[in-house]
Structures are given as C-alpha cells and as structure tokens.
Design brief:
Elements lengths: L1 H32 L11 E2 L2 E2 H6 L5 E2 L3 E2 H21 L3 H27 L6 H31 L5 H7 L1 H24 L15 H10 L13 E3 L5 E7 L4 H16 L4 E7 L18 H15 L5 H8 L1
Parallel strand pairs: 6-7
Antiparallel strand pairs: 1-2, 3-4, 5-7
C-alpha cells in the first residue's frame, strides 16, 4: 500500500512537470514556427539577444527546412503527460515501462539537440535548455517508478505483458498527436488573421526623382580603403556599393544582413556589398572604450576573426550568414 502511494506521488509530480513541458514546448513552437505571432523575448534573452528567435531562424530548428522541431517536442510532452495520466488511473508495469522508454528516447534526442544548441548556435536557446531539464526530471521519476513497479511485480511473480502495453499506448498516442496539431492550427489561424504588413514598394513619385538625384549628388563622397578587403558578396561590377559594418551579436545587424540578401536577390547584378567586421566590445576593438565584456566579447571577436579567415574561401557568403 505504501509503495502504491509512493508511485501515485511520483506520477503526480511527473504529471505536473509534464504540463510544464507542454507549456514550454508550446511557447517554443510559437517562437520557432510563428515568430511574427510570438515576439516576446521573455526567458530567451541573453545580453539583449533573443536566443530562441535566433535558433528559430536557423536551419537547425526545422526538419526538411519546413517542420519546426518544437512541433515534435510538443507531441512528445503531450504524449508523456497523457501516459502519466493513464498510469494514474491504473498502475501497470507495461505503462511504467512505456514511460521509462519514452524518457530514455527523449534524453537521447535532447543530447543531440543540446549539442547543436550550445556549440553550433552563437546565442543559445535558453527555453530549449529548460526542456532538457524537464526531460531529465521525467526520466528520473520514470526510472524510480519503474523500479518500484518491478519490485512489486517480482514479489507477485507476475510478468509484464508487452502486448497489453502496445494496446494501452494507443490512447495517449492519439492524444499526443491531436493536441499539438490543434495548437499548431490555432497558431496558424491567428497568424493568418493578423493584419498584413506593408509590402508595397512605396516608389518615389516621378516628379521627385530629379530633386532626389540632385540631393544625392550634393552629398560628400566618402572613400573607404578597399585594399585587402576580400569579404565581399554580390555583383562583381555592381554600381550600388555598400559597406556593411556589423557585430555578430547585434540583432539590428542581423536584420540589415537579411535586407541586403533580399535586395541582392530582387535586383541581381546591381549591388555589391563589402562586409566589415566591427565587434561592439573593447575586447578586440580599439575604437571602443570601456571594460571588456566577458565572455560575450570573446564570442563577438571570435566570430569576426572567423569571418575574416572565411573570406579566403569561395563560400564566404554562406559562412558569414551562417555565423549570424
């Protein structure tokens, strides 16, 4: 009887943790799959940079470049929570085994995702790290619960029926699939219902073209030394030359980089961009004063140094934009 109460307490704790996992996975799905809908950086900001958004914008956050990994995370946590709920209704060794195996699978997946998050992404996704802790906590509870159930089974000398386990997992499996689909559809519907953003070109009125050209010709020309600058992208003979100074941890620099890429795609053969690396930290930038910001300054400087070295290779643009 005491063992049964302990199992109930373990499962109740697991159920609460599972709900927290569902909430975090839902928020991640919204930030990764519908960034225009979820703009808050709560729980994601590192030195003013939204790590969750940065991961969501990277190719590592989607499977086949289409489906956010957070969608499968939501399925996983809903499934686990449903399994725990079914186990609370009636304790069986089969469902205890299913609970344990599912958390082992989750730990293996989180190990891979955690490696990518903390080694491949410059600004880690903090909310993602919280989900790793959720999975670890559920694994500990699942292991404890399974061991207690196994001891009870050994005393009664009853062997687990894995056919029953497969049969009983159907209900939580269906719930685990239906709920994320419903949540994703809701996000998609809300996103589609939002007022469309301004996408028109807002072309200059014809009668103002000459005046604008006169104003531009009156501006003082600034000559920047291009000697040795190999970090370049765009048309070789482009007549629109842009010098871009950027910090790899600057969200506005990242946005500017996206705009430039769109401009080069839209008007091919016209634009040439020289990328200049300007870390916003005195760690390696003598133009800035103040105390170096460790370890953030090192990340900025390492990114700039890597981009300078990458300029010697043919795929510099891909590398440059990949660092962002």
């Amino acid at each position: 009887m005491a063992t049964q109460k302990q199992n109930k307490a373990i499962l109740t704790t697991g159920f609460i943790i599972g709900i927290i996992g569902v909430i975090l996975a839902t928020l991640l799905l919204c930030k990764h799959g519908f960034p225009e809908l979820c703009t808050s950086s709560f729980g994601c900001s590192i030195e003013g940079v939204d790590g969750c958004q940065r991961l969501g914008e990277s190719s590592e956050s989607k499977i086949f470049g289409l489906i956010p990994i957070a969608f499968f995370g939501l399925i996983y946590y809903v499934f686990l929570t449903a399994v725990i709920g079914w186990q609370l209704k009636k304790l069986t060794i089969e469902k205890a085994a299913l609970f344990l195996y599912a958390t082992i699978f989750g730990l293996a997946v989180d190990a891979v995702l955690g490696y990518i998050n903390f080694t491949q992404i410059l600004t880690p996704c903090i909310l993602c790290a919280y989900t790793y802790l959720i999975t670890l906590a559920l694994f500990i509870l699942a292991l404890t619960h399974y061991l207690q159930m196994s001891r009870s089974m050994s005393r009664s000398k009853k062997k687990p029926n894995f056919g029953v386990m497969l049969q009983e997992m159907m209900n939580p499996a269906l719930v685990g699939l239906a709920v994320p689909l419903l949540i994703s559809f809701t996000f998609w519907s809300i996103d589609r219902m939002k007022a469309p953003t301004e996408v028109a070109d807002n072309l200059l009125a014809e009668n103002k073209v000459e005046i604008t050209l006169e104003d531009l010709s009156a501006l003082k020309e600034v000559n920047l030394n291009l000697t040795g600058i190999r970090s370049v992208e765009g048309a070789e003979n482009g007549y629109i030359v842009i010098q871009k100074f950027a910090d790899f941890l600057c969200p506005h620099c990242y946005h500017a980089s996206q705009l430039l890429q769109e401009a080069m795609k839209r008007w091919p053969g016209r634009i040439k961009v020289y990328y200049r690396h300007f870390p916003l930290d005195s760690t390696c930038n003598p133009e800035l004063h103040g105390k170096p910001n460790k370890p953030i300054g090192d990340w900025r400087c390492n990114g700039a140094q890597a981009a300078i070295c990458a300029a010697d290779f043919p795929k510099f643009p891909e590398y440059y934009h990949g660092i962002f």
